[in-house]
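Lab notebook, design round three. We kept the backbone fixed and only want residue identities now. Task for the bench partner: fill in a sequence for the structure below.
Input structure tokens:
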């Protein structure tokens, strides 16, 4: 009873402060929010941040999220005490966690566009963001333990920094999108420089139990410059540009990757069964299309029994192609033989198979002209192949081509085998011991 009264009293105080701030001009409000920034570049050594991948860490993250969402009215209590969504089952979703003395005290999930799209696309138009160059990720499922909400961002700022470093260095993400309560949007606008997707508020956002929501986006490439403009002149603990871009924080454990993959799957068959069948019944609630998509991603025998059941006879038109569990961005250099503008061309390989690959190329290429490509599959792992472009499209300014491989070399075969058989990102690390490497060889890009 006392806790409920204290919670109501704090909410009333916050509402009063918010109404009072509403009378100030927008720039004055933003300046006040920025004056309250306290980003300690040397946080408590008991704090650690990493990807949530064990059952205990994921359970703690989902429980913390559940309690925060229930307290805010964004969901009704679930018997499991967890908030688990279908997006958490995808390899394109990464859950970050912050721990203090070994206990999870903060979490957020990064949902890069995958087979289910984004949660917020049901309420907000993302066409303008999609029209720009670069991948998109939705920041979702943010929660900080109540004991750390009054500590001047001692957990929140490190978690935001982890998000920034992971997205810019590991997740191949340029644009972030969020859907937040209207009471919180100015914090994201003033501190992190998000821009609204639209000026109107969605009054009933189903993903948050029908609460109102505002959508916003942040171009991480432009933000680097904007952070310098807004914060570059400020002293260290208020300088978010230095904090996000320049500070190196040993508390953050970024994933080790043997190949140039850009996502970090963690869901083993045991974890999927535990969270989506036993602790919750998320898989039972999925429609047929989403069930088929999960089967197209987790197409290994050991997943079959834990994925949602499929009907014996599928409706016409629902056959889906196989989807990769790992996304890639491998730099390469292509030189065509016997063509007037033979290159070399810098390319980015984004999808692979034993007999070919898909790559982003900066200019149009001729089809069925053979050439030599050198591709850096990982640090010190290089493949040299004879290839020819066999199909291509031009989405926007770049070109995407499908290439046929004449004969894959040993490094290519090992990489494809690891990607096809690996269940989690740690499986790739175990497989790399068998990959032919060139320890001191790196592709130098023009």
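Proposed sequence:
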């Amino acid at each position: 009873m006392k806790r409920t009264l204290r919670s109501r009293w704090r909410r009333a105080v916050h509402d009063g402060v918010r109404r009072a701030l509403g009378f100030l001009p927008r720039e004055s409000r933003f300046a006040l929010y920025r004056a309250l920034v306290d980003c300690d570049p040397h946080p408590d050594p008991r704090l650690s941040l990493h990807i949530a991948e064990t059952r205990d860490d994921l359970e703690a993250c989902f429980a913390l999220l559940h309690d925060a969402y229930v307290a805010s009215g964004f969901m009704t209590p679930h018997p499991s005490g967890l908030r688990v969504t279908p997006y958490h089952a995808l390899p394109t979703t990464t859950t970050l966690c912050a721990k203090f003395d070994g206990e999870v005290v903060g979490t957020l999930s990064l949902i890069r566009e995958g087979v289910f799209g984004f949660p917020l696309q049901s309420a907000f138009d993302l066409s303008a963001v999609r029209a720009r160059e670069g991948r998109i990720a939705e920041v979702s499922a943010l929660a900080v333990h109540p004991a750390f909400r009054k500590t001047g961002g001692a957990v929140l700022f490190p978690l935001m920094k982890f998000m920034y470093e992971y997205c810019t260095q590991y997740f191949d993400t340029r644009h972030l999108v969020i859907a937040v309560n209207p009471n919180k949007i100015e914090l994201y606008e003033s501190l992190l420089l998000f821009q609204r997707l639209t000026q109107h508020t969605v009054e009933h956002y189903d993903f948050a139990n029908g609460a109102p929501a505002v959508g916003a986006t942040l171009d991480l490439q432009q933000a680097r410059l904007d952070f310098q403009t807004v914060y570059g002149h400020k002293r260290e603990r208020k300088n978010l540009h230095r904090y996000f871009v320049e500070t190196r924080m040993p508390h953050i454990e970024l994933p080790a990757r043997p190949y140039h993959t850009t996502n970090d799957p963690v869901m083993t068959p045991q974890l999927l069964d535990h969270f989506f069948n036993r602790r919750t019944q998320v898989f039972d609630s999925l429609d047929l299309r989403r069930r088929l998509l999960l089967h197209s991603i987790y197409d290994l025998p050991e997943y079959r029994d834990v994925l949602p059941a499929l009907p014996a006879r599928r409706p016409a038109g629902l056959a889906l192609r196989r989807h990769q569990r790992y996304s890639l961005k491998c730099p390469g250099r292509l030189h065509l033989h016997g063509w007037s503008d033979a290159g070399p061309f810098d390319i980015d390989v984004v999808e692979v198979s034993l007999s070919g690959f898909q790559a982003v190329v900066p200019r149009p290429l001729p089809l069925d002209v053979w050439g030599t490509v050198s591709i850096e599959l990982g640090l010190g792992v290089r493949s040299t192949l004879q290839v020819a472009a066999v199909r291509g499209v031009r989405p926007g300014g770049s070109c995407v081509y499908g290439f046929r491989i004449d004969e894959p070399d040993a490094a290519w075969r090992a990489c494809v085998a690891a990607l096809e058989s690996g269940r989690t990102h740690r499986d790739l690390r175990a497989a790399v011991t068998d990959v032919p490497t060139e320890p001191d060889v790196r592709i130098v890009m023009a």
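Keep this in mind before ordering anything: The CA atoms of residues 388 and 441 lie 25 Å apart.
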